[in-house]
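Box 4.2: Ligand-aware structure prediction
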Amino acid sequence: MEFLPLFFNMHDRHCLIVGGGSIALRKAQLIAKSGATIDVMAPNIEAELITIVEHTGGRTFVQPYCDSPQHTYALIVAATNDNDVNTAVSQDAQKTNTPVNVVDNPALCSVILPAIIDRSPVVVAVSSGGKSPVLARQLRTKIESLIPSAYGRLGILVGKFRDAVKKRYKTIDQRRLFWESALNGAASELVLAGKESQAEDVLQQILASDEEFNQGEVYLVGAGPGDPDLLTFKALRLMQKADVVLYDRLVADQIVELCRKDAERIYVGKARSNHAVPQIEINELLVSYAQQGKKVLRLKGGDPFIFGRGGEEIDSLAELNIPFQVVPGITAAAGCASYSGIPLTHRDYSQSVTLVTGHLKNNTTDLNWPSLSYNKQTVVFYMGLTGLPIICRELINYGRDKDTPIALVQQGTTPNHRVITGTLETISDIVIRKKVKAPTLIIVGDVVNLHEKLNWFTPTSQLHCNNQTTV
Ligand code: SAH
């Protein structure tokens, strides 16, 4: 982060704008909204700018820039089209540590003015760190369309109730839970529908009720196979809400980054035969944090109920009556197949798909081989890399054609996504020759032949490689 975002209280404080043209005018219009008193210094000053200055109670200095400000300014803005003047303003301001913004010249700025979405008292600021104001403005336009204009009224309502809520609920956690519940519920809907007085009644009723807001909760959330864009809206919402996050080895760092910034993060990942935190301890952690009144997010790769031990993790919660929700995620089979152009079913080639574990116990897989060997079906093996030779051998032994196509998908949907194809007879040798990185998924069936034709996804790592070869 190159700049620290801060919201500056400019009420009744003085700001100097150097420059009298249209750029200075735009800055003055923005800064005036904050309640600042604006002075302007320039040899020529546009009439509209003079009106704004007078409105804020400020003064105009019709003269070239000189370094003798009458006030100690809280903010100085250089908005001239003369680089020497802008540089002088910046240097003079920095001598006295006065925050200075130079329009379109980040190198001369100690502060930058972000693009703003104004739903006062709610204000969203977007900055590209001075790199691209256009990009920041485009993002602002997108955010504008997402935040209803009535959000400001919601902010005013919250402000009105702040003290009452503080009196009623003693801990910060209780107050946060109160507001989360209120803002997710009827009160907020009523404000957005323009019914403020009814919204106030709803908040009064909650305050008068015996609801204590100290009940913890667990969210068991599927994070998908790797690409953060494959998260569900619900997953993201709960990720932003949780106080504590317990996450797995399979959950990409970029996804963990999307959790609430101040949430406590606990890595409980396990390698296949190397349990970092034993399952029973994970279950206990979920219970114990929830019993402390926390919102606990258990973030799992793919889908929590598909080879994810989700059932075991919520078992003790259910026994202890701890509230929980389960949010499905895109499982590795769906993600890897889609991003590899391999439809898992197809009217011509495969009438069913079976998801099985390829995890070996004592070097054998205890699977129903006869049923997996029927030709017109797709079989997807999770955790199957180590057992690959045994899987191929058993499928052939039980009658599946040795030329049946098979794909091994490495780190599906991520920048390292790679697909290695072969047949039941050849794939084990091919995989030995290629350096394969976990996790990998194995897809068996005629649908794998469609990969060549339907493949559309080029991972960023490969784009990068291609660039290097062409350079
Ligand atoms: N709950 C997860 C599966 C966990 S079991 C889900 O629904 O996807 C772990 C196995 O999932 C790995 O050994 C691998 O076979 C598979 N897997 C998970 N993510 C993967 C990915 N991005 N690419 C390939 N395989 C993946």
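In the box above, the bound molecule is S-adenosyl-L-homocysteine. Residues 466-471 have pLDDT under 50 and may be disordered.
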